[in-house]
Task: structure prediction
Amino acid sequence: MEILIIEDNRTLANNIRRYLELEHYAASVCFDGSEGLQRALAHEHDCLILDLDLPGLHGLEVCRRLRAAGSKSPVLILTASGATRDVVQGLDSGADDYLVKPFDMEELVARVRSLFRRRGTVANPVLVAADVTLDTNTHEVRKGAEPVHLAPKEYALLEYLLRNAGVAQDRSTLMEHVWGEHTASIALETVDVHVAYLRRKLGKELIRTVPGAGYLVPG
Result:
């Protein structure tokens, strides 16, 4: 699952990102409303976590423009005010839910999961390739009947490859969707390393190397 966090408080934004990654979600962050809108329009995310008082473009306007452009991504608004008027404005702008600051991270994750269920984001919660299964509800991975422990980035990489089974994914694409905003400071070889980890844990035959194209899980 790919989540975009648009929040100008860098400490809070990065704390949310780290917590979501521990829950096996692929999360990326931007700190400006205009940039957040561009990134949300360029790629359909599974969920947006959107602050309201943003530089560049107010969160309500970000949400309105997303909906006007036809984006179906669920939006969870973060607001410092729980006043009815502010909540109504947020929902009327196209948001799906709201959370008042300060909040508990466990509640935030629960709200995100609720949005996934409400919108049917998880159309098929169990992804299968050969004898490997990944349950996106429980985040459990199995090879045959045996559970396999994966680190958060390994899990996110495997889920993305499974969701795009049959289509080769180049390293730049994998970096963008699994490592998000950190791609500028991380070598592309990081993808190769994590693929090697997955092969070691799940079998060499699961992920194929397609020369000149990237990596592929057979469909």
Remarks:
- The mean pLDDT is 88.
- The longest helix spans residues 105-119.
